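Reading a protein record of the kind used here takes only a little practice. The integers have meaning only within a learned vocabulary of local backbone shapes. With that in mind, consider the following protein and its fold in token form:
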Amino acid sequence: MPRSPGPNQLRLRDGLARAVGVLGGVRAAEAASGIGKSTWDDAQKGRVLPNMTTTWPVMRLLLMKISPAATGVRDWDQLYEAACGEAGVRTRRARPTALSGLPPKRSVAVPQLLPPGVSEFTARRAELVLLDELLLRKGNFVPMAVVTGEPGIGKTTLAVTWSWRHVDGFADGVLYRDLRGWGPDEPALPEEVLTNWLDQLGLDTSTMPDDVVSRSAALRSALARRRVLIVLDNARDEEQVRPLLPGTPLCPVLITSRNTLPGLVIHHDATVIGLDLLSDEESVCLLRALVGPRVEQETAAAERLVDLCGRLPLALRVVAANARTRAEASLAALVGELVDEHDRLEELDGPDPRSTPRGAFSWSYRQLSADVAAVFRAVGLFPGRTFDANVIAALGGLSPRAAVRHLRTLVRLHLAREVAGRFEMHDLIRLYAEELARGDQNTRNARQRAFDYFVHTARRADEFLEPQRYRIPLPETPLVPAPFNDYNGALAWFYTETANAVALCRLDDPSFDTARWRLACFFRGFFFLTKRIHEWIESHELALPGAIRLADRGAEAVTRSYLGVALHERGDDDAALVQYEIANRLFHEIGDEHGATNTLVQQAVVHRNRREFDKALRLASEALDFYLRVGLIRNAAITIRTIGWIELDTGRLAEAEQHLTESLALCRQSGQGMTMDIARAHNALGWVLLRLGRYDEAERSHLAAIEAGKNCGSRFEEALALDGLGRVARATGDHAASAAFFQDAVDLLEEIGSPLANELRADHAVFREGDDG
């Protein structure tokens, strides 16, 4: 018949139940101590007494932190011994040593398990100071820091360097272990590490239970009154780390991992230190420290090496090692070997996979699930530098939600970064992803899906910018919808994705010829609005050979027509006229009278620039007759404005005012989508009114142009309006205001990279000389 519990057993049971309640339940007690929740549950219900050599020493340390007022227990040691006596369990009052309740020591042991550090450590000053603050502080908690970052960023180097600098402050030694969480070998098992550490601490593990819970408890008891630094390097996840944590604030814990280990932050108040890339200065300093005077002798080459290595410490150390072993080679020669992106990882490779970027990246890649690995490779297929989830969804044939989830897994593992909802990869990691994707049978299909997404989204965005402009129809239905639903969203998308669209146009694969010319075509309106001339010309020059290869005369004509406008905006009218004339011929060949007429207006603008006013007026008038005949009000308004400019240039100011006023009325009549044309007409009318001496009206016209320019996002028209206001102010004798307007105009033009900035600056210099005279 079982013995009834004595009063001390009941007091112990009740005290434990109150303590568990204070801690928040058995799960919380398990998280705080590492002792299983079933052990806590059995103890608080009085079913089993905690084991005196394994579980009780650790539980006792946690219980002593809880106020006696909450538990009703002032002396846990005395109560536990009395309860054991009532239960017939023999105990021995342990001597007050650090190893109370543990198997006997074989010898006094002070483990020093740190691996060798590096001879040169020239950076991470802020991180070293932060580790001092986190790990050397005092309190009733275990100080804990998790150093994270992408492969090759220098996590282990930082942890080992900091540890060696403070090793003398830990009288009872340092316990270090590479947990092999990210490497070519199998991850270290907690029981393997525990056995080794307990042996290092001088304990006889042959007398202990061999389960993880028991040995984890034994470790905490062994460390209870010791001052030991715990360094857990290369951790895979929280479950690998938790059994190795101490229970005393005397033993700070420094962990490195490619995973952010959020469970340690939540349950153990760990602080995460994310390592960023070295700065340019820190990178050059590291090369100088490792390579020597050659860095000072070849400064430009050293800076280029830093750029090619992406400021990644591991890559910089590989390059430095190559430079040291090849003393006869110049740094410029090393640069030449790394310039080709496709060979860069090969050049940074070596016989030891632990010491190369490719090896470091591969260890992370192998840990990915199949879905996340597919997204990693998809990023390698995309030629752009930054991207959102929609792009990856299109590449991978996924939903945007699934793409976000997988991308954030890559971010958590430091294979990608997320900034303001967009993602990017370090250049070397991106090259590794591209290397993996090259052998993928679906590469072309994935890129075609990316093109389809960009083409459809650009067309949708262009509809918001210029709703009345004719656009070629698209037969396909987009798999991923456009991420905007208004003008501002469309404009923001264009700004964000321009570099990616041009990068896609650089993919010179005949399979993408149709997509390339369409993509360039749908960006034309944005390019014209924002005067992004360089990207405009590059995208259309890349698209043109594909359109020719397709033998699609319509595609070629449109591409040449838009390329001509870009060349004109750059100031190369001769080249623009060549494109217009070829486009005009092609449009006539396919019977596209609308397209052919558009090229007439474009040619008229060039001839006006050349001061060939009669020819310009004839071409513009011919085009206007067509637009009015077929009812194209938008095109008519633009052409009438062109005629007004020609009349202004020839001094026919009354006719110019009449035509520009008519153009404004037609723009307003056309409704939404002609805000930029309203700004252009107001600026032209402002010039006419200035020439007529009607300064107040000219000022109002330019102010209206500024408002319209702001509404549509045309900083170019804003700049022209500011220039107009400056000329009005000068005409009225307000030279201070005039100079301010002129400077604002030049600054704005320089910001958008317009070549007109130099022309205006020269004009204003002439004005200033006149004022001084």
Summary: The CA atoms of residues 580 and 602 lie 7 Å apart.
